[in-house]
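BUG: 3D viewer hangs when loading the predicted structure for this chain

Environment: internal workstation, default settings.
Expected: structure renders.
Actual: progress bar stalls at 90%.

Input used:
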Amino acid sequence: MDPTRLAFGFLEFVVFLFSTTCHEAAHALVAKWGGDTTAFEGGQVSLNPLPHIKREIFGMVILPLIGILSGGGLIGYASAPYNPQWSVNHPKRAGLMSLAGPGANFALAILAGILMRLGLILGIFVPGAISTAEIVAPANPGFATAAATILSVFFSLNLLLGCFNLLPIPPLDGFGALSIFTNPQGAFRLMQLRAKMRSFGMMIGILISSYLLGYVYDPMLVRGVRLIYAFYKFH
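Structure tokens produced before the viewer hung:
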């Protein structure tokens, strides 16, 4: 792998690590607010990545690095513990907990988009590839160029994570969010369905979700880029 691609892959990994930490911390915080202190007691209501890495070192560190170094692309996962009985007794609170993770990713994407927009307005950045969320700072190869690259990765990666995790397929957060629309009995049946799909079934769910992701992410990316570039005068 050439050094430029390796450096970009490392940047993607750092952004993934921070974004996933925010994702899991949001799960843990909303669960705590809802009465389940399982993740809080495990130290996961924190933006320190170490408690999250300790729980899922393979998914947060080893697997992403394997994907980057092999040229296969960034892939990884993480999780936050919760009390299953609490989620059955309080399905709407549990559903909100599920939504909190993708919500954190969308919040990071929006923040990155706002900063990208401000940079365009102030003339610090100019659009790179118009069909993507890339911005560049060709006239200022120092800090501005680094900031443009980091913001572009933050925007696109967090939008990707948010869209992927909201798909209503086990084991993703979108499936857990379905409990918002149920009572305790319905939440228990959803939990039973998730339990039946462990291991091999979960892998099928991930594969289906990966196939469907483009139908959600691609239109969201196009709309997001249009908002960032809105009224920008291209030269």
